[in-house]
């Protein structure tokens, strides 16, 4: 997964199954047994990164006086990652939203990881309709990421949309 994320820094075309097999000291047959396509491999690497982020959030909970502050911080972290390494972010998300069936199945796992992260950020706050709040924020994240990926808006727009969603859903 680390080798896949590292090669993604060079763009989508820089991710080569042959190069990854070589760098991981695996045969092509072995790598294709693990992942049926390049998109699935990249999406797996993205999911692996999300799981790692989820572990970091669990180990060091978000600070902030309110659920809105904490969730807003998490959302900004995701939005900032788009700008921090735009090329790698586009590669990972392009694969995640690919029509490839194996890669697309991973979207629900990524969504579940994101939901868990938001839930952890809410922490013990008393939030009405907690599950609906988390689901709504997950849908908003998914929507703005797709729009960003299509090149229609930049990271600043994503941050603004996510800030608005957190404010509307979790209150002023």
List its salient traits.
Tetracycline Repressor, domain 2, elongated, single chain, 76% helix, mainly alpha
Describe the structure.
It is a single chain. The protein is mainly α. The protein has a single domain (38-170), classed as Tetracycline Repressor, domain 2. 76% of the residues lie in helices and 0% in strands. The protein contains nine helices and no strands. The model has no long low-confidence stretch (mean pLDDT 85).
What is the CATH class designation?
A: Mainly Alpha
- CATH topology value: Tetracycline Repressor, domain 2
Number of domains: 1
Number of helical elements: 9
Order of helices and strands: HHHHHHHHH
What's the short version?
The chain is mainly α. 76% of the residues lie in helices and 0% in strands.
Which helices and strands occur, and which strands form pairs?
Elements: H1 2-8, H2 17-23, H3 28-34, H4 38-59, H5 67-84, H6 86-96, H7 101-122, H8 130-149, H9 155-170
């Amino acid at each position: 997964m680390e080798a896949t994320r590292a090669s993604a820094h060079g763009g989508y075309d820089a991710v080569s199954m042959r190069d990854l097999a070589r760098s991981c000291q695996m045969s092509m047959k072995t790598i294709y047994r693990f992942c049926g396509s390049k998109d699935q491999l990249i999406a797996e690497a993205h999911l692996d990164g999300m799981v790692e982020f989820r572990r970091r959030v669990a180990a060091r909970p978000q600070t902030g006086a309110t659920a809105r502050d904490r969730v807003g911080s998490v959302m900004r972290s995701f939005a900032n990652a788009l700008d921090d390494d735009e090329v790698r972010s586009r590669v990972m998300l392009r694969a995640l939203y690919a029509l490839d069936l194996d890669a697309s199945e991973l979207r629900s796992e990524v969504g579940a990881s994101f939901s868990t992260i938001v839930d952890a950020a809410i922490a013990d706050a008393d939030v009405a309709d907690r599950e609906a709040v988390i689901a709504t924020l997950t849908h908003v994240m998914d929507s703005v990421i797709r729009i960003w990926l299509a090149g229609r808006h930049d990271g600043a727009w994503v941050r603004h949309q996510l800030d608005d969603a957190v404010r509307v859903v979790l209150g002023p």
